[in-house]
């Protein structure tokens, strides 16, 4: 997405709230990564040490938001500021029990809004792959994101 005007926001469902984790705590990020990523085989960071997690999650260029439904964590997203004034949605997703309840569209809308508000920002981007939920790409596109590049790996 290269312009905030491209955003096609989805309204917030009743009972859902999204809060930034302003007090950085790497254990929280690790928990969110495990909770949301387990069904999608997010395993690349699981072997990292506490020090590696702390270096990753507690730096100034990373911000984290958690979605709550009736007090339970329903999902999260992490935004990572890049040196070229772009913002990557580093991680995004819902906890397994909250998939299919209509929360993903609003969570992504909020991620995109927060990315654009993290000035300066000239582009917001995300990586996705065939291991992600089958609706992930459609959600990205429905919110106004466009495919920039595709790659095929063996």
UniProtKB/TrEMBL annotation:
InterPro entries: Acyl_CoA_acyltransferase, GNAT_dom. PROSITE patterns: GNAT. Residues 16-154 form the N-acetyltransferase domain. One of its GO terms (molecular function) is acyltransferase activity, transferring groups other than amino-acyl groups. This is GNAT family N-acetyltransferase. It comes from Microbulbifer agarilyticus. The lineage of its organism: Bacteria, Pseudomonadati, Pseudomonadota, Gammaproteobacteria, Cellvibrionales.
């Amino acid at each position: 997405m290269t312009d905030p005007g491209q955003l096609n926001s989805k309204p917030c469902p009743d009972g859902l709230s999204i809060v930034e984790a302003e007090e950085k705590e790497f254990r929280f990020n690790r928990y969110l990564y495990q909770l949301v990523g387990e069904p999608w085989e997010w395993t690349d960071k699981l072997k990292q040490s506490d020090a590696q997690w702390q270096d990753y999650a507690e730096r100034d260029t990373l911000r984290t938001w958690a979605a709550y439904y009736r007090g339970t964590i329903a999902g999260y997203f992490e935004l990572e500021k890049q040196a070229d004034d772009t913002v990557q949605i580093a991680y995004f997703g819902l906890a397994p029990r909250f998939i299919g309840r209509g929360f993903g569209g609003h969570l992504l809308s909020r991620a995109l809004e927060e990315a654009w508000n993290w000035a300066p920002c000239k582009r917001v981007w995300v990586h996705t792959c065939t291991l992600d939920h089958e609706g992930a790409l459609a959600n990205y596109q429905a919110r106004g994101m466009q495919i920039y590049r595709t790659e095929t790996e063996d």
